[in-house]
Amino acid sequence: AAAGTTGSAKGLAANPATVPCVQKGQSCGGNYVGNLSAPYTATTPMVSLNWQATPDSMIYVSATEGYKSGGFNFTYAPQSAYVPPNFGPETVWSYELGAKNDLFDHTLRLNAALFYYNWTGLQFSSLVAPATSTVANAGNAHSLGFELNSTWKPAPGWTFTGGLTALSTRY
């Protein structure tokens, strides 16, 4: 690049080689020219209800919203690689119904849960050029799953654990 044309959006816009990427607001030869200001705020609610059915068994239900802020891609990329200058936030709603049980004089713990996740603006990282990655929003996704885990202590000094998860996800 000619002297005085690297590092600033004005200098990049004056350089005929970088005009196309400046107009698109993307990385130009490693120089970021996009909007560096974006408000990302969220309030994330969570509610749960637990019921102690017996001294050794609890049933619960919960709903929670998660949030991951949007941000900016600061990366060196060849001009041929499109690097979006920024990406939006990701939110996920999580719903869970489960039970926690201590059985057989507390020698067996058995926990089970059914859950559903619903993502909006799912963020993903991808390799756009050698040694160059970027973050973008992939859209929406949801997962439905079941989890079972157990701990068995048949005698002092002996502990067996196991778990099983089934998951169905759609992007």
Description:
The strands form 2 sheets. The protein has a 6-stranded antiparallel sheet with strand order 1-2-5-6-7-8, with no helix packed on it. A two-stranded antiparallel ribbon has the order 3-4. The protein has 171 residues and is mainly beta. It is built from 2 helices and 8 strands, in the order ααββββββββ. The chain has helices at 9-14, 19-24, and strands at 46-54, 57-68, 71-72, 86-87, 90-103, 108-129, 132-152, 160-170. The chain is elongated.
Helix-strand blueprint:
Blueprint: H1 9-14, H2 19-24, E1 46-54, E2 57-68, E3 71-72, E4 86-87, E5 90-103, E6 108-129, E7 132-152, E8 160-170
Antiparallel strand pairs: 1-2, 2-5, 3-4, 5-6, 6-7, 7-8
Distinctive features:
about 170 residues, mainly beta, two-stranded antiparallel ribbon, 2 helices
**What is the general shape?**
elongated
Rg value = 25 Å
β content, as a range?
Answer: over 45%
Distance between the termini: 42 Å
Along the chain, the helix and strand elements come as: HHEEEEEEEE
Number of strands: 8
Segments where pLDDT lies below 50 for 5+ residues? 1-9
In short:
This protein is mainly β. It has helices at 9-14, 19-24; strands at residues 46-54, 57-68, 71-72, 86-87, 90-103, 108-129, 132-152, 160-170.
